[in-house]
Design goal:
disordered C terminus; mainly alpha; single chain
Length: 313
């Protein structure tokens, strides 16, 4: 209990410091540390699926993306801010304090209005788990019972990548990828292992914590390592890989929607699967989604790097 209290206080303190930091680099570092503590909190809440996603995506890749984006706009760092008048700063401070106070009161009122008897949907999930095609309740909910929501999450990720791509169209400076025999050897050694871990997380998601987002985060990390090392022969293959990579960007959402439409023709409704086919369809959806998530996350980091060329990813 004491550990949970300390963890909650640390999360609140880091969140406050992240918002109040005047230097963007400092804010990003605090944000990464905050993500790791939130992942630990999810673990304490016995939600390992959310903990894996938060550690890999929320803290890891999101932190790398923020640092890479900060590199492109040095004029936005805290040390180069344009000074503002004291009166304007004070008035804005009172405005935000009032807004946060109102939101805090609304939150307290909402919590107080919640029924003391907890309401759980787990009995309904367990009652229909045998028809979902998987044995893990979280995967059953994400890929079957509310599959449309998960498909829209993939669509939002794709939209975010397309929007970010337009923000870094010009004005890039040339830098060189990391080089060195130690890095290249490490990548050659770790890359097959990371792909194996990604496949394991994908397969394990049907019966235990894991799934497409966790697998996709590992694949994204593997691709970033490959790009940073610039292994011999990679540049010669970029032209042939480009079409496959572009198809991978759209693959997760496309496969999701096609399988959803197939459910209509089979009489199970949109995003519905016949119980005897549900396991196979979910595996197909998660495989396509993991590849798409990996490519999108890696692309969102690489597109903000100065020497990124679209043909590389």
């Amino acid at each position: 209990m004491m550990l949970d209290a300390i963890l909650a206080l640390l999360i609140l303190a880091l969140a406050w410091h992240c918002v109040r930091a005047t230097d963007l680099f400092e804010a990003i570092v605090v944000f990464i540390a905050l993500g790791m503590l939130v992942a630990l909190a999810w673990t304490r809440l016995q939600a390992p699926d959310a903990a894996l996603a938060e550690a890999a995506i929320g803290a890891g890749l999101a932190g790398a993306l923020l640092l890479a984006s900060l590199r492109q706009m040095p004029e936005m760092s805290g040390r180069s801010r344009t000074p503002t008048s004291r009166s304007k700063t004070t008035s804005l401070g009172w405005f935000w304090w009032g807004l946060w106070g109102a939101l805090g009161l609304a939150l307290v009122s909402g919590v107080a209005a919640i029924q003391t008897t907890p309401v759980s949907l787990m009995p309904q999930v367990q009652a229909h788990l045998s028809d979902s095609g998987v044995t893990h309740p979280v995967t059953a909910v994400l890929l079957n019972f509310r599959a449309l929501d998960t498909a829209l999450e993939l669509a939002v990720l794709l939209w975010a990548w397309m929007a970010q791509k337009q923000l870094f169209v010009s004005g890039r400076q040339t830098v060189y990828p990391l080089q060195g025999q130690v890095l290249k050897t490490a990548v050659k050694t770790l890359l097959p292992l990371m792909v194996l871990v990604a496949v394991y997380l994908l397969w394990r998601g049907s019966s235990a914590p894991g799934g497409a987002f966790q697998s996709g985060a590992v694949l994204a990390s593997a691709w970033l390592m490959l790009w940073l090392a610039q292994l011999p022969g990679l540049s010669r293959k970029q032209g042939g890989m480009r079409l496959g990579i572009q198809a991978g960007w759209l693959g997760g959402v496309t496969v999701f929607l096609l399988v959803g439409l197939l459910g209509v023709f089979q009489g199970a409704g949109f995003m519905g699967y016949p119980p005897d086919q549900a396991g196979a369809w979910i595996l197909l959806i998660e495989s396509a989604a993991a590849l798409s998530i990996g490519l999108l996350l890696a692309s969102m980091v690489l597109v903000s790097m100065p020497d990124f060329q679209e043909g590389t990813l």
